[in-house]
Amino acid sequence: MVEQERFEHMSILPPFDFSVQSSELAVREALQKLLDALGPLDLGVEEAGTVELVLAEALNNIVEHAYPDQNTAGQIAISCKHLSDGLHFKVVDQGKEMPDGQAPLGMQASLDVDLNDLPEGGFGWFLIQDLAKDVSYQRVGSANQLSMRLAVALQS
Amino acid sequence: MQLATKTEEALRIVSVQEERIDAAVALEFKDAMRVETDGGPDTVVLDLSMVEFIDSSGLGAIVAAMKHLGTERKMALAGLTPTVERVFQLTRMDTVFSVFTTVDGALAELRH
């Protein structure tokens, strides 16, 4: 009986993971791999856009800040699990620790300013915090672990 | 970074010929925009109809391109695809630019 229930709640998408060597172009490669892997869920434009945007921001942050020196850049490991409340992601790198040991809150910058004072950056963490749920960052040994949930492909 | 530029009725129309404006090409995009807009007409229409994805770096580069025009000139956006439009809405940057559904719509509104 219990086995039967579990089976009914299983996703058509088994958990998967992959790694890329950190670089600006690797982010594109990783996003393409990810969207291909999510193919069986047949996400709509909006949900696929959410996944691509949030993961792009998380990966760009790692490339820019965790591995700022391309010569010593390491791997970025991405794992994904589809549960009834959405897609659970874990992104792990071996780079520099996040400042203050925590994920930025991603506050929205004021746009009620002169042209020259308009923000050109800082949107990344805002988008992650706005679109993702249960965002959690941990430094574990020499690794950065970011986990988050995207409430897409929900299973009732 | 491929941009196609034309000038119509004192409007500079710059069409981005790429599917993505992301961190990998943000600097290149900013530089290319300077080349296409420096010394041109006061109003620039940035046609994004071919662009399917921008990230925060791409958004920052578009803001930088507008700031580079200065206060005497202006930039309008046209042809935002759904995911691109969403990034502008979420960051409320759609309130900073004039946003038009199509390039033709932008021209009709801005040409006088």
How does this structure look, described?
The complex is a heterodimer of chains A (about 160) and B (about 110). By secondary structure, chain A is α+β, with helices and mostly antiparallel strands. In chain A, about 35% of the residues lie in helices and about 25% in strands. Chain A has four helices and five strands; from the N terminus they run αβααββαββ. Chain B has helices at about 25-35, 55-70, 80-90, 105-110, and strands at about 5-10, 10-15, 20, 45, 55, 75-80, 100. Chain B has a five-stranded mixed β-sheet, sandwiched between helices. Chain B has a two-stranded parallel sheet with strand order 3-5. The longest helix of chain B is centred in the middle third of the chain and has 14 residues, at about 55-70. The termini of chain B are far apart. Classes of the chains: A alpha+beta (about 160), B alpha/beta (about 110). The interface of A and B includes residues 60, 115 and 116 of A.
Helix-strand blueprint:
The complex is a heterodimer of chains A (156) and B (112).
Chain A: H1 2-8, E1 16-21, H2 24-37, H3 45-66, E2 75-83, E3 86-93, H4 123-131, E4 133-140, E5 143-150
Antiparallel strand pairs in A: 1-2, 2-3, 3-5, 4-5
Helix pairs in contact in A: 2-3, 3-4
Chain B: E1 3-8, E2 11-16, E3 20-21, H1 26-37, E4 43-47, E5 53-54, H2 56-69, E6 74-78, H3 82-90, E7 98-100, H4 103-110
Parallel strand pairs in B: 2-4, 3-5, 4-6, 6-7
Antiparallel strand pairs in B: 1-2
Helix pairs in contact in B: 1-2
